[in-house]
Write a structure and sequence with these properties.
Layout (H helix, E strand, L loop, with lengths): L1 H38 L4 H5 L3 E3 L2 E3 L9 E7 L9 H9 L5 E7 L12 H17 L3 E7 L10 H15 L5 E4 L10 H16 L7 E3 L2 H4 L2 H6 L7 E8 L5 H12 L4 E7 L11 H13 L3 E7 L26 H13 L1
The structure holds ligand IDC.
């Protein structure tokens, strides 16, 4: 008899043990996710969650309009030091921004498709996305084509890159994908559109609702071409870029007209200086742009977070500090845009 009872007691004990360990695991998981959620409380992502495109802009988890505003890095291969948790924290807490754009050149300066160290660049991006996530900020991952004006030139590499990265980041919820910074070299919208379709499929395989920003012809100025023949996917936005001393009323009028006709526009790069990234800042024009941005609740990222000796850099040339900047550490552009961000939200 004893012999028969013992194994069944053993089985019973086994069942209890596995029940207890499963419950403990569940509790631990619940606790971990609760503390993660609690640590994000009060942050942009903690309060607004996963964003979607509705009408002409982004809405938060409650369905309310929620524009992104933030700084773009310079090329991450060139200025890797600003991929820094404390830099992003300063931008969040002192500058009042809610997103960071991570610009990875494909051609220039150690570009991803021109001999740059692919693994190091992906690690750097992953660091940037991780810091943004920990701080409850949104991250725009920018495939920064420039002299390679036709995105189709590196389509295979782009598809492989976005496939891999979207798989890696699919559960984060705070990552937006900008798939071709500035098409040019006469590349027309239909070519960009077909490139976008291939890349969107690669991203959506892992992250079906990820927001994707698509560049438009002539350095992301011809959003009207996208309006004529938009992509047939949800959660897609179209990039408009301006440099205030070069792009004035005519581009604002185009922007306003496209938004009024329902196009989701993301100003994923802008500067207060001219299109070379240098020259005098035109704050009157830049203010007119900011007014338009506020009027329509558009999202925008300012070029660039670096201390290069050019007027678009928001840090004083050679500043050297990667976070906790004082007024003296900022360039003219930096002081101006910080005020704009602080007062605009
Ligand atoms: C500029 C940088 C500059 C760098 C150059 C490389 O500010 O330091 O030498 O690229 O060619 C853009 C581009 C952006 C440019 C910026 C200013 O997206 O890469 O950065 N600009 O020229 N479009 C319009 C202006």
């Amino acid at each position: 008899m004893g012999k028969r009872i013992l194994p069944s007691v053993g089985r019973e004990r086994c069942r209890w043990l596995s029940f207890l360990s499963a419950s403990a695991l569940l509790l631990a998981l619940l606790f971990a996710s609760k503390t993660a959620a609690a640590s994000l409380q009060g942050t942009p992502f903690g309060e607004h969650g996963v964003l979607q495109v509705e009408g002409t802009g982004l809405v938060d988890e409650k369905g309310e309009r929620y524009p992104l505003q933030g700084m773009s890095t310079h090329g991450i291969a060139w200025f890797p030091q600003y991929i820094d948790r404390e830099a992003f924290r300063t931008l969040r807490d002192d500058w009042g921004t809610n997103c960071v754009r991570l610009a990875m050149y494909t051609e220039e300066y150690g570009g991803y498709c021109s001999g740059g160290d692919k693994e190091a660049l992906k690690d750097l991006l992953d660091k940037g996305v991780t810091y943004a996530s920990e701080l409850g900020m949104y991250a725009v991952v920018d495939w920064h084509i420039l002299s390679d004006g036709d995105p189709g030139l590196h389509q295979q590499e782009a598809v492989a890159f976005f496939d891999e990265m979207a798989e890696r980041w699919k559960d984060r919820g705070n990552v937006l994908y900008e798939i071709c910074n500035e098409p040019d070299s006469g590349t027309d919208w239909e070519k960009i559109r077909s490139y976008a379709q291939a890349v969107i499929v690669a991203i959506r395989r892992h992250d079906p609702d990820a927001v994707v920003i698509v560049g438009t012809p002539t350095w992301s100025q011809e959003i009207d071409k996208a309006l004529e023949h938009p992509l047939e996917y949800d959660n897609v936005m179209y990039a408009l870029h301006f440099y205030a001393a070069t792009h004035t009323d005519w581009l604002r009028e185009r922007c306003e007209s496209c938004v009024q006709q329902g196009l989701p526009v993301f100003i994923s790069e802008f500067g207060m200086c001219d299109a070379s990234g240098n020259g005098a800042n035109d704050f009157a024009q830049a203010s007119a742009w900011m007014e338009l941005i506020r009027k329509y609740g558009l999202s925008c990222c300012c070029w660039d977070l670096a201390d290069k000796a050019e007027s678009s850099s928001v840090l004083r040339p050679g500043c050297g500090k990667v976070s906790g900047w004082t007024q003296e550490d900022l360039s003219e552009a930096g002081r101006w845009i910080r005020e704009q961000f602080r007062s605009g939200r």
